[in-house]
Structure formats: C-alpha cells, structure tokens
Amino acid sequence: MSVATPARQPVALSRPYLYLIAFTSGMATLAIELSASRLLGSVFGNSNLVWANVIGLMLLYLTAGYFLGGRLADRFPRADVLLRLILWAAFLSALIPLAARPIITRAAQAVFGAEAALALGSFIVILILFSVPVTLLGTVSPFVIRLAMTQIADSGKVAGQVYAISTLGSLLGTFLPVLVTIPQLGTTRTFLLFSGLLFVVAFVALWRNHRRAALPYALLPLILALPAGGVLGRPLRPAAPGASLKYAGESAYNYIQVEEDPAGYRYLYLNEGQGVHSLWHETEVFYGGTWDYFLAAPYFNEPPFRADQVRSLLLIGSAAGTVARQHTAIYGDIAIDGIELDPEIVAVGAEYFDMNASAMPQLTTHIGDGRYLLNRMDQRYTVIAIDAYRPPYIPWHLTTVEFFTEAKARLTEEGVVAINVGRTDSDRRLVDALSRTLLEVFPSVHAIDVPQSFNSILVASNLATGAGNLRANLNYPVGSFDPVLYDILAKATDNIVPLGESDIVFTDDRAPVETLVDSIVLDFLLAGRAEEFRLDHE
Prior knowledge:
By secondary structure, this protein is of the alpha/beta class. Helices cover about 50% and strands about 15% of the residues. The strands form two sheets. Strands 7-6-5-8-9-11-10-12 form an eight-stranded mixed beta sheet, with helices on both faces. Strands 1-2-3-4 form a four-stranded antiparallel beta sheet.
C-alpha cells in the first residue's frame, strides 16, 4: 500500500506583511535612485543631463517592472514567487556599487585623459547595471496588489492602500540617503543598507514558511562579502605615487580626499580627484597657481591704490582656505567671511589645512549656499571672490544677472568681484558669456588668463575702470609693494586679455550654463588632446 506525500503548503503572507513589503520596496527604490545619482556624480557631476539620464532610465526600468509584475502576478499568484523576485532584486542592488567601483575609477581616468568614448561608455554601462534590479523592484507593487486582493469589491481600496504605503516608503527613501546615510555611511554602504533591509523582509517571510526554499538564498550575502570587503574602506582615487593619504571620506555633497607628498604639500581633492581645490604647506603660502591671481583684483581701481585699502574679503567657495590664507599674508588681519556649502570640507580644512581659529582668527566660515548666505551678510566687502565654478560642476544660480546684482550691493565703493572661470585655449564661450552677463551689472569687466592653466580670472569693478590701471598701480610706487604681491601683479598685467563677444546673458529665468559647459567639454574631449586636459584650479 502506497502512502501519498502531503503537498507543500503555499507560502502565506498576511495583508499587513504585504504592506510592509510594499513600504520597504518603495523606500529601497528611491534610495537606490538617489544613490545612483551620487555614484555617477562623483565623476560625471550632478548636472541636469546626468539627472535626466538617471531619472529617465529608472522610470523606464520601473515601467518594464510594472508590466512584467502584473503579468507574473496573474500567471503565478503565489507569495513565494514575489519573495524570490525581491531577494534577487536586493542582491543585485547590493552588487551595483561593488561592480561599479572599477568602472567609476576607470571613468575618472578617462574623463581626465580625454578618452571620450571610454568616458561615455562607462556612463552607459553604470546605468545598465541598474536595469535588472530596478525592473525587479518594479514588479513588487502589482504583485502585492494581486496577493492582497481577496474580493473584487475591494480592488480599488487595496490598490490605493498599496500605492499610498509604497509612496510613503519612497518618501522616506528620498530623505534618509541625502540627510543621513550617505553623509554618515557613504554611497556604497547606503546601497548595502537599503538592499539589506529589503532582503531581510523577504527572507524572513520565506524562511518562516518554507525553510528549504529559503536556505539557498542565505548564501547571497556571503557571495557579496568578499567584493564588499575589497571596496569598503578603499579610497575612490588611489594616492599619487610617493604621496600619503591623510584623509578619505564622503559627505552629503562630495567624495573628499587629502594627500600629502614627500615635500610636505597637502592637496584637497574632490569627487573624481583630478582638480586640486586647496593646497597647503607648513612654510609656504603662495604656489604660483590660480588662487594667487585673486590678489590682483582690487588693483584695477584708479591709481594709486594701496594694500591698506583692502579691508575685507568675502569668499564664496572657500574650500580649505587657500585664498583666505593668501589674502591674510598680503593684506594683514582683514575681515574675511568664507562661504562653503559642504560642512565636511570645512572640517577637513580645519584639521589638515590650518583653516581654524588659532591659525586664522580673522576668518569666519559660514556653511550653506553661496547666494543664500550672500544676501544675509550685513557688511560691505572690498573683494568678493567666487571660486565655486569648476566645469562641469557650475552652480547656475551663481552666474546670473540677478546674482551679480546682489553681489554688487555688498561691495564697497571701490569694491570688485573676482571669479575663477574654466575654459580651453581654443574655446572661451563660458568666459565670454559670463563677461557679457557681468557687463549687464558692472561698468567695467577685465579678464586675466592664468598662465599654464585652463582658467581665467574675471574682475568686475564697482567703479568704471580701465585695464591700464593694473599696470599703473604696479608702477606707483614700486618700493611700496610686498615683493610677492609685486610679482603677482606683474604676471597679472602681462596676462590681461581682451573680452570676447557673446550674445548670451545668464538670468534667473534662463541660464543655459550646463548646455554651454557640456558643449565645451565634449568638443575638447573629442579633440583627443589628453595631455592638455586640465579644467581644474591649477
């Protein structure tokens, strides 16, 4: 006599647990999307073009997931199928930053080396990495609705509840990465955290109902452990040969690295790590770079202009304090207000670049957006230095007629605005457009091309001034100048260039900065001039 084997009981999920799945899935989906922009932004920036690609493709993947999930739910209306889809979605989501790290590193080298095809290919490959896990996440909501529905009369209510709960999870997944997990844990750990939460919710349900089916999925976290160990704690950009890594960390806005070379020079690198944002040495203040040329800006005023007429400085984009330190060395203990968006850069500046109260008591650092804080300053400045542009990371709201009008209102009678602007040796469209915009507000604008760099300093004066004033001040009288300042003024005088023509005026209503910069960078990349590619601060 044969004995029938009892059929395996189907996995059963209560409606509250299905709603928990919908909530966790919605949270993970948005967290992954925001982390994707951060993953790409470390190399490719956070321009509208990058965001459009991230959001557009994520929506495409979710669209495919909704369609696929509805079909699967009707064909296989079983909870174990849903849980398996979620487990694979969680695993593949956690795998994204681990698989993307070598691609990101190579992409940074490609951008720096002007390898256009490789840079574009890396961008596309990283976005493709999201296709399967995000599509699988898209299957969750229609599947949950199908399983939670017990009668047709409740279909509208159930669907509404699922979408409401999923959207509530998405709301949490929007703010948690930006405000908490990325600044505290970093991008990779943010991926692992939200993927892990999703995995736990699905695994617990499968384990409680059918342990044999759940057991193979317990191996997935172990599979991730080895590559995760190789990525976590490793800097995005390896230190230069012979240099030591003093600091590497991630903030809400940037990936930050500090290196020190054998000669004792410390360098602040952000994101892809190709541009030097601040430089420090124990015994030196001047480095022959772009920063030095901000010191020449007030000398476009009528001669004789004296150093003691520079009484205050507002620095928008203070980084780790190189410009502020140089102004102190030349102009003495003038009042300096520095504005920096990223509080972690300020902390790094204090620890590694002597940007602290003991070394620079006259510097007051304000953390926040440059334009917002500019309009809350209650004093007037001799110099407003703007060092917040670096293609392709240009905040458009710091380029407009309205912004420069606000800056002009914070100047003294002889005050000047000085801006560090990127260019190439054959494409000055950004410099020309900003010059044209500045002329809408200021009576005079002058341009200095920094030697051996792809940077220009634009100087807009509150009074009508001539380019010849700089040379006249240099010669009046020679003996009164600090020798370092005299050398900087002499170099600035030799590198004054005429302004170019432009029909572009940036306004708050229309500021096509990103379109212009994308065109400049793309043209330069396609030219293949790798050895000349230096759109940075030096």
